[in-house]
Automatic annotation (TrEMBL):
Pfam families: cNMP_binding
Residue span, Cyclic nucleotide-binding domain: 19-122
Transmembrane portions of the chain: none
PROSITE patterns for this protein: CNMP_BINDING_3 (PS50042)
InterPro entries: cNMP-bd_dom (IPR000595), cNMP-bd_dom_sf (IPR018490), RmlC-like_jellyroll (IPR014710)
Gene3D superfamilies linked to this entry: Jelly Rolls
Designated name of the protein: Cyclic nucleotide-binding domain-containing protein
């Protein structure tokens, strides 16, 4: 028995997800066609540093930790947590399309998952969609890098 809530229609979830806020409505049918749900158990690894970044995740429910690889003297460090209403992953958007961190579900987590190669193809084929996607991913990268920098500075101050 799953402790995750019943699955809503993809259309409803996509249009309500904050990542797509103010996205022109003509793009939602395209996104819906290429979106699937995926559930992860608590402590389940979603992806690992160095693997191909083949998917883009929007967290619907649950929480995920983003971890560094092993740091001498520190071990694995959780640099950030992301949860419901947040996107997960940006490495899929930029060559060489390899994950820079590892992601692990902290608790049961439900995501909408997109095939990254397909999203990139759609962005290439439709510059208006590509612009919308690039602006959102660019904002995500900026936010995550600032959060990671802050977290790592806090760790260094403690040491």
């Amino acid at each position: 028995m799953s402790i995750l809530s019943p699955i809503q229609t993809m259309s409803t979830v996509l249009t309500q997800h904050p990542f797509w806020k103010n996205l022109p409505s003509q793009f939602f049918p395209i996104l819906e066609e290429h979106a699937t749900y995926q559930d992860f158990r608590a402590k389940e690894k979603m992806f690992s540093k160095g693997q191909n970044a083949d998917y883009f995740y929007l967290i619907i429910e649950g929480r995920v930790t983003i971890e560094t690889p092993f740091v001498p003297g520190e071990g694995v460090i959780s640099v950030q947590h992301v949860g419901a209403g947040e996107p997960l992953g940006w490495s899929w958007f930029f060559p060489p399309h390899k994950w820079h961190f590892t992601a692990r579900a902290v608790e049961p987590t439900r995501c909408i998952v997109f095939d990254a190669a397909r999203l990139r193809q759609l962005a290439d084929a439709d510059p208006a969609f590509g612009y919308q996607l690039a602006m959102r991913v660019g904002t995500l990268v900026t936010e995550r890098l600032q959060a990671t920098r802050s977290r790592l500075l806090n760790i260094c101050e403690v040491v």
